Amino acid sequence: MNTERTKKKLTLAEAKFKAEHFCAYQERCHQEVEAKLKEWLIFGDWAAEVILHLIEHKFLNEERFAKAYAGGKFRTQHWGRLKIKNELKKRAISPFCIQLGMKEIEEDDYQKVLETCMHKKRKETKAKTEWERNNKVASYLIGRGFEPELVWSTIKSNSQETD
């Protein structure tokens, strides 16, 4: 007995309607919409027509997606700029839109988040020496997408304050 549901072929109008709801729920990039259309077995000209419809009716906007993604990942996940840029590139967002998205991150807020993450990680990091602790904290912050030069300068300025 086959327990898999057989997928019903959608009409073009149904695909547009379903895609509108998919995009209205949260900001989406073109790549996510294309993947969802494939999942719904919508290909070729129909897929292009659905995407064009979404763009024309402002359900799909790469610039808006980049801003929402960058701002959201920074504020909620405390990701650094490098990680956010790489994730946007993976989603085939244009360099111009990535640049606009990065403007959502204020420099003062960025430095505060970096310092907060650094202090939190320093408290929970066990190490035999201060040098070892600093390396572990730096590796963690760089892994979160913060720029290595900024990480090290922040660590150095904060370790001088605690001396």
Textual characterization of the structure:
- The chain is mainly α and 163 residues long.
- Helix content is 72%, strand content 0%.
- Helix 1 crosses helix 3 and helix 8 packs antiparallel against helix 9 (148-162).
- The mean pLDDT is 93.
- Give the total of domains: 3
Task: Tell me the Rg in angstroms.
Answer: 22 Å
Assess the beta-strand content as a share of residues: under 5%
Task: Show unreliable segments.
Answer: none
**How widely separated are the two ends?**
71 Å
- Helical content, roughly? over 70%
Largest sheet: none
**Gross morphology:** elongated
- How many strands appear in the DSSP assignment? 0
Total of DSSP H or I helical runs spanning 4+ residues: 9
User: Which class best fits the helix and strand makeup?
Assistant: mainly alpha
Mean pLDDT: 93
Task: Give, in order, the helices and strands.
Answer: HHHHHHHHH
